[in-house]
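Query structure, 329 tokens:
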């Protein structure tokens, strides 16, 4: 079974290139595109995490200019802003720096859109923040997909945001403190809301098989989307690294974590790693798995599969229950 490739809605960087870094260039972005294509990712959203305003002002135009080049226009499908409108609470904020977070602000979003030359495709924000519903409606009206994440939102607030225009949940089950209220919490509320699709990091570290199964059963495969959440350290050898001002460790098994806080520090996986891991769990059919990694992400951001490049592909071997990259034609 062959498809053009895999679509990743959340790539923070790859092989030492950080999309939120002060040294990002068009050439380094082009390098990541080539590396990800070789690893089976046909198209993706470069993701900028919560950053100082000068990083947005610098990096958004770089990505936008690269997107306008014919070689990349079918591979870089838009920009995902994961922040700066997130919860500053420990655990919910994950690896995001609370000093750089902002309250929901349509004027700031307008400025980000202008720096990105209108190429912001997805925005992750926390549902419980004052002004989040108004920002969600405004972003939706600008053609931006609104996803809820890195939050401490109650069921009521998640319902409010879904009515305001949010259509997804960013890496459901992650970006959440280790201890949360037993019933009225963001995971249960997200699972129960049929208006919201769920993106999941299926790298074998972020979510245990039981939670992956629960999300897929609650949402249905048609409302589940696999993402890698790849960090700039993805694709690098195991070892100790500096990331976002913290010492992190990349283990031989791919686990990327902060040994001081005990929290994970992003993913070291590619989409090919993630779909192969999920295939090994036998939770979905091959056709459902392909939908979660190709059809569903495209549908969420409003792109037709026919628009995708066809000179590379991924082959699913149903006997070995794994995906393999096929050579470019």
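Result returned for the query:
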């Amino acid at each position: 079974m062959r498809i053009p490739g895999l679509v990743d809605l959340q790539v923070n960087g790859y092989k030492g290139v950080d999309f939120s870094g002060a040294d990002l260039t068009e050439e380094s972005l082009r390098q990541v595109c080539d590396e990800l294509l070789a690893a089976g990712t046909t198209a993706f959203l470069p993701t900028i995490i919560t950053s100082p305003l000068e990083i947005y002002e610098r990096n958004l135009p770089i990505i936008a200019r690269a997107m306008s080049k014919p070689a990349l226009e079918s591979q870089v499908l838009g920009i995902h802003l994961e922040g700066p409108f997130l919860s500053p609470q420990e655990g919910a904020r994950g690896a995001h720096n609370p000093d750089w977070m902002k309250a929901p602000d349509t004027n700031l979003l307008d400025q980000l859109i202008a720096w990105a030359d209108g190429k912001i495709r997805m925005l992750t924000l926390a549902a419980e923040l004052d002004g989040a519903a108004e920002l969600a409606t405004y972003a939706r009206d600008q053609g931006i997909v609104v996803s809820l994440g890195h939050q401490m939102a109650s069921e009521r607030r998640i319902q409010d945001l879904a009515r305001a225009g949010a259509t997804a949940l960013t890496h459901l089950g992650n970006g959440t403190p280790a201890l949360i209220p037993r019933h009225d919490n963001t995971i249960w509320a997200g699972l129960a809301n049929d208006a919201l699709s769920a993106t999941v990091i299926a790298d074998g570290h972020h979510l245990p098989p039981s939670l992956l199964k629960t999300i897929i059963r609650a949402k249905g495969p048609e409302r589940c989307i696999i993402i890698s959440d790849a960090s700039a350290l993805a694709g690098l050898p195991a070892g100790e690294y500096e990331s976002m001002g913290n010492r992190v460790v990349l283990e031989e098994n791919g686990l990327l974590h902060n040994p001081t806080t005990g929290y994970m520090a992003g993913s070291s996986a590619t989409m090919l790693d993630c779909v192969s891991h999920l295939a090994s769990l036998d939770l979905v059919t091959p056709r459902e798995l392909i939908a979660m990694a190709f059809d569903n992400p495209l549908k969420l951001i409003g792109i037709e599969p026919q628009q995708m490049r066809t000179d590379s592909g991924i082959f699913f071997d149903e006997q070995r229950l794994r995906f393999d990259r096929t050579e470019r034609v």
